[in-house]
Amino acid sequence: MPVNDPSHGFCRDCLALQRGSGPRCHGCGSPRLLRHPELYKLHLAHIDCDAFYAAVEKRDNPELKDKPVIIGGGKRGVVSTACYIARIHGVRSAMPMFKALEACPEAVVISPDMEKYVRVGREVRSMMQALTPLVEPLSIDEAFLDLDGTERLHGLPPALVLARFAVAVEKEIGITVSAGLSYCKFLAKVASDLRKPRGFTVIGEAEALAFLAPQPVTMIWGVGKAFAATLESDGIRSIGQLQRMDRGDLMRRYGTMGSRLYHLSRGQDDRQVSPDQEAKSVSAETTFDTDLASSAELVPVLRALSEKVSARLKKANIAGRTVVLKLKSQDFKLRTRNRQLTDPTRLADRIFQTGMQLLSKETDGTKYRLLGIGVSDLSDDERADPPDLVDVQSRKRALAEGAIDVLRGKFGKNAVETGYTFGKGRNAHPPEALDD
């Protein structure tokens, strides 16, 4: 293996080690060469799939390859993912669909197929776990990896292992990923975002301060639009300004966030890759094509979403003790309501009945564009849903739900419907929604 020298890198396409500092690979002629003074000693990585949902759809339909693709709901929904062609036209994730179509009217809009995306995400995750047991998922399509100590296993340094992984994902799964390699989690994630798609960026410890100094404060994890506005009102726009400030002063101004600003602005992040990160909640939500206000319109949607949440809980062998209702009004104001149960639940009926109680207080004539239901305070399902001595009918409903689950498992999820959703149209059968 070459010594840790800037002129000794490798080709990201054929993985051949380079003997000099030429602009192209001496083996395959590719210009995608990776060189860095710390290339062979860094081991913390962040992997992020490129425009994941859109990439999967393009993989499955080659006719979409050169077309702008938007994954999202109807005209009233928001953009879940936009391919890079659509992004050139100004389309961004979380943008209202009507604005996205104004920016790119020729875009092909596809409703999310979460079951397919979860399946592909698991394939990528499995390939990550073949590299190292230290994989910390952040979402369906991204994760941190700690490759420290794996060189003996793979016979290669972490940088080459990551490059080989990226090539394998592209060939075997048919999508692309971007990688960031650094000495800490913060900069590994920053690095993976810098040269998408098909990027591989390295940020070493020696260059961290100089690299961060000219960057905007929004690059720091936890600094959103609101806090960035607060910092700007104090005259702070760049990370370099934070680097020149005293930790005590930052903490006096911004509390615990001040300490984070101090350390991350200097590239100091001692968080470890934690493979046992557990979900904090399981939820499902949908955005309506037209605003809904009445119980008659909202209840079927609530039932359908409750069944989605229940199915995910049962599949993961977990239960939740707190039911959370989420509503967004036509003026984009968010309402969240929650209720803690006496025992954890994984039953659609119990989630739905609790959600109905919460919803009844919100159907006051307000028109809503979004409805969601979920559970938090998660635990395993060993003690979930004990018999209710007061509500004797709950046991019968639980048995009926179990029978429905068996039929759906055998004949498909649409084999059986309750009276709440049967014949109630599209809103009662929303497309698969995102988990928290």
TrEMBL record:
Keywords: Cytoplasm, DNA damage, DNA repair, DNA replication, DNA-binding, DNA-directed DNA polymerase, Magnesium, Metal-binding, Mutator protein, Nucleotidyltransferase, Transferase
Biased composition (Basic and acidic residues): 266-279
Annotated catalysed reactions: DNA(n) + a 2'-deoxyribonucleoside 5'-triphosphate = DNA(n+1) + diphosphate
Ranges of residues in domain UmuC: 44-224
Sequence segments annotated as region (Disordered): 265-285
Necessary cofactors: Mg(2+)
Origin: domain of life: Bacteria
EC number(s) stated in the UniProt entry for this protein: 2.7.7.7
Compartment list: Cytoplasm
Record's keyword annotation contains Signal: no
Binding of Mg(2+), residues: 48, 141
Catalytic residues identified in the record: 142
Enzyme class: transferase
Residue numbers marked as site, Substrate discrimination: 53
GO MF terms held by the record: DNA-directed DNA polymerase activity
Pfam families documented for this protein: IMS, IMS_C, IMS_HHH_1
Cofactor annotation remark: Binds 2 magnesium ions per subunit.
Quaternary structure note: Monomer.
Family statement: Belongs to the DNA polymerase type-Y family.
HAMAP family: DNApol_IV
Function: Poorly processive, error-prone DNA polymerase involved in untargeted mutagenesis. Copies undamaged DNA at stalled replication forks, which arise in vivo from mismatched or misaligned primer ends. These misaligned primers can be extended by PolIV. Exhibits no 3'-5' exonuclease (proofreading) activity. May be involved in translesional synthesis, in conjunction with the beta clamp from PolIII.
Record protein name field: DNA polymerase IV
Record organism: Aminobacter ciceronei
